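Internal ticket #5521
Category: modeling
Description: The requester needs a full-assembly model to guide mutagenesis choices. All entity lines are attached below as received. Residue total reported by intake: 1309.
Assigned to: D.W.
Attached entities:
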Amino acid sequence: MALQSLDIVRRSATTSRSPQIREPSGGREVAKLIDTTKCIGCKACQVACMEWNDLRDEIGTNIGQYQNPADLSANTWTLMRFAEVENSKGDLEWLIRKDGCMHCADPGCLKACPSPGAIVQYANGIVDFQEENCIGCGYCIAGCPFDIPRISKKDKKVYKCTLCSDRVAVGLEPACIKACPTGALVFGTKDDMKQHAAERIEDLKSRGFEQAGLYDPAGVGGTHVMYVLHHADQPHNYVDLPADPRISRAVLLWKGFSKPLGLAVMALTALAGFFHYIRVGPDETDASDEAAAHELAKRLEKAP
Amino acid sequence: MTNHWVDIKNADIVLIMGGNAAEAHPCGFKWVTEAKAHNKARLIVVDPRFTRSASVADVYAPIRTGTDIVFLGGVVSYLLANDKIQHEYVKNYTDFTFIVREDFAFTDGLYSGYNAEKHSYDKSTWDYEIGPDGFVKVDPSLAHPRCVYQLMKQHYARYTPEMVARVCGTPQEKFLQICEMMASTATPTRAMTMMYALGWTQHSVGSQMIRQGAMVQMLLGNIGVAGGGMNALRGHSNIQGLTDLGLMSNLLPGYINLPSENEQDYAKFIAARAFKPLRPNQLSYWQNLDKFVVSLMKAWWGDGATAENNWAYDYLPKLDKLYDMLQVFELMSQGKMNGFICQGFNPLAAAPNKAKMNLSLAKLKYLVVMDPLATETSEFWRNFGEHNDVDSARIQTEVFRLPTSCFAEEEGSLTNSSRWLQWHWKGAEPPGEARSDLRIMAEIFTRMRALYQNEGGTFADPILKLSWPYARPTDPTPQELAREFSGKALKDLADPKDPTKVTRKAGEQLAGFAELRNDGSTSSGCWIFCGAWGPTGNLMARRDNSDPTGIGQNINWAFAWPANRRVLYNRASCDPSGKPFNPDRALISWNGSAWGGADIPDFKVDEDPTHGMGPFIMNPEGVARFFARTNMAEGPFPEHYEPFETPLATNPLSPTEPRALNNPAARVFDDDRKAFGKPAQFPHAATTYRLTEHFHYWTKHVRLNAIIQPEQFVEIGDALAKDLGIASGDWVKVESNRGYIKAVAVVTKRLRALQVDGKTLHHVGIPIHWGFKGLAKPGFLANTLTPVVGDANSQTPEFKSFLVRVEKL
Amino acid sequence: MADMTRRQFLAVTGASLAGSSLVLLGFSPAAAIAEVREFKLARATETRNTCPYCAVACGIVMYGLGDAAKNAEASIIHIEGDPDHPVNRGTLCPKGAGLLDFVHSPSRLQHPEYRAPGSDKWQPISWDDALGRVAKLMKQDRDANFVTKTPEGLTVNRWLTTGMLAASASSNEVGYLTHKVIRSLGVLSFDNQARV
């Protein structure tokens, strides 16, 4: 399939420019909104994901909790994680979070990936793995600030949520979204999802959740999977949702090695575009990193 | 459900108690989240466990299993004491003003007429006082000491917040907070819905728990209104339909009780059920019963049912007692049953006390299992080690296992808990040689009929004369059967008002049960389904999902019984003059000459409201009953009795009367009574339930569901776990007086230790699902633990409250 | 945080950092062709059905292999919620979402089977033999144990020694026919799942 029809905006380890002129009306970025305050942890999303994507994980064991399978895997692309937390009033809260790929605007996996075109980002924001190009090096795993991609023992390739790119490509919502019985999962343009979240947050505040808020972390340029949290000030309570996710130092370390090499090769000018790729990630994990990510995110949002 | 799934979005308060809708009915629960998100509704969950429903509740209160009557009785007491009732509703639409007989009494937890030897009541005193005009005496001033209002007030005065805290273990402030929230719906413009399921039915006092909930709803004026109602969530996809069709020991289709052996006379059988009005100008719709019965008998026996033979009344078997499942397995255990057919039913897992089930099934001569899946019941004779330790060689039962098609391979209708009959279509052929249940039943019948034709046999008439008009006698179509249960004219039907006009030609389908007649000119296999396949075709297959009023009525989607009505008792959503109590959520109203609106009126459509006809048209009183008269086994008002396996030594509500510790009217067989455990040996309160990942015992055969919850576990509160040195993931043994299971421990804060009657009580949660067949990890059938005792009215087993002991392995 | 493990992971794989320069070693951008998975339902046959589990009765759409032509044998390849259905509006719970694996469960029974008294195994039996034997056993039991009158002379016409439990996931049509047949035989030991 040609790149144009896919509206790919970024490819891992690739130097040529992506087509950029399409401009769909109504915004091109899509997002999944996960409202943890409506989620009952039923796992319909897990099943719908496996069913649609023809995945079947092992029938495992019970490890002393509701979470099953025990972790994400090459066959489990989304997983409900459960936390029992007592709030300041002494009431119990069962915080349940659907874990899976966040489809970062600034995807650490893509940045880390050394195999051309093994990870792509579409103009709609979906970050998709192209397993036929995957060399199984696992750098994307190191690059992910949310610890999502998993390598398959069977084919040594890495897998994760595609946001049902095959469904979205024909105008359908992802399988998990469609299944969700309580409407805790919603799908639409990113703008619409932010608006939806704002309405939810208002309702939550009327129920005493003063710190209700949206999780759309800036450290990765924002995400195309966002959470409504009752306690946006305590993301860690939702089974270690990172408060301020950033592309890991591992990726930057990798770049530390590759950059001198890259500069040397650049003299050949054959792969000039690589500079374009590599320059978006500065060497240090300081404020400039965040600024660059913001810049990227903005560019993505405005990208024609 | 009195209301329906989508209608929940109209609620202002949602109470989930005796159920766990988020877990067991997630897609229906969506309407709770809708009510919360778009109607500012508040959700209350009362449950021994902090459930998935509780996880999104505004208020959660813990309760000791089996004590819901105390909690709800406390709510009744609160509402009466604080005058938080909808006066206009209660005064006009309930029996508040009715006067009860002078000899009715309640002392120390027992009602008048108790017979301790028989564990039953002489109920003759449980009735109203009837005046010389043949009608019930009433006191509109409510001052009469024996009017229902005063009796209720007196009865529930004992159910104080302190008593609730002491018996239920519910913190008093939580209880009072919930009372206050519920009380907010006493105004005509606010509604509360109650959603319950097996958490209320599976108790020895289950029916009374539900009645108690209904009493709260009536006090608040929440029955018959949009966003209100008593909503039984119901388990299986057609559990509603099969009950509607009377597939129970004592029923005929359409909630007609089968005759008892003392009802030898057809006319008396009808008269006993065709209630005469107890108040002036009441409809008392059951007066039409003979039309329904005659039409049923014509559907079943055709020309074999005539006025001369009392419409084949003798063909119906007569009851000497109820042959419910528990009774049948008791008889089986005594060697009194020879044959048994399980059609899509897995009783080895689904009935209480697995050991008794193994013993009982092994005494059968033959067992026939029809099922799409390999059930445990079909292999009860096979040794699966600790999970089913039997000696095959000693089991002499012949077993037939007949493969059936599943939903995807069939066509037909299912009735959901909203009472909607929805048609579905076939998408593929069944695997291998599997056949539809219709074909198997028809084959068994036609083969038996041929044997009786050829060989003769005992009382062959009902078999030989059974109406069997199907084009392919061994494989009737769903369409043929749907038309038959809906009903048709057998002769040209003349208009009663103008005999020269024919309202329906012979052979035409009928539009509704109002067309049924008692002279044999109509047939209908299930009167409440009449019109589902009407003169215009199959209404069950309708797919118009429009909702013009926006309150979610979807009146042209499929067909709802009765008469396509979506909210039962909807006349009660209007004030006595016929104006909607809540104009924003109007279901129907009186326009001066007729009733109409967003729903089909549950009322005589041209009845002028000034004539005083009550909205509860099936009741001879015309109003709803707080006082159940003789309709309940253990008394006219719900009273708390402890579960049969209780951690308490006495009933705190009647501490001096040992006979009132447990339900005094429950039927308990001797062997089962001996198998009850005592708290000294089994100190923990246990309850069984289903997980959202699973559907009973089916989904362990389904790979996707086995993956997401693969292995047997039990839930233990962190306090108990600490006492016993158990960590999450450890293996534990859970034992009752009937057997044990071994499972992984899930240690959780969601099961909190309760202070009950001055002592600390721990609950143990036992999910059902695992067994010795299927793809999930093999496990123990949870009913290894459960006791055999049923609700005194429904005989539904007490799966929700029993005693166990936990130990670390 | 998982950062630590990622760093360790990198330390292990870091030895082969050559991977990092793949792009520089001649992988041309043209090789980086990407495509989404082909949408698998484009011409599958849609059939409307109802979820067989709980009584919410969600509408489902079953997708069958082939276009229902004579020579195409339909097999259900995917099931999802019916968006037109007023109650579930396309959603499904984890059970409904997994229905495909119920249809194709390895536990689905394919052939009639018979277990002889005392045996520890199944043996195959034809439908004809199975149904013939069942009908014969039922008639024998009914003829031997049917009660027409009580000792007191009451007409009761009941058969108590064979009973039945009926499925609550079968259709109304099945339930209706089952009830009609069972009562015509005089059976009183008769219940459905509503009892439990």
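Resolution: model delivered.
Comment from assignee: Residues 262-290, 299-304 of chain A have pLDDT under 50 and may be disordered.
Ticket closed.
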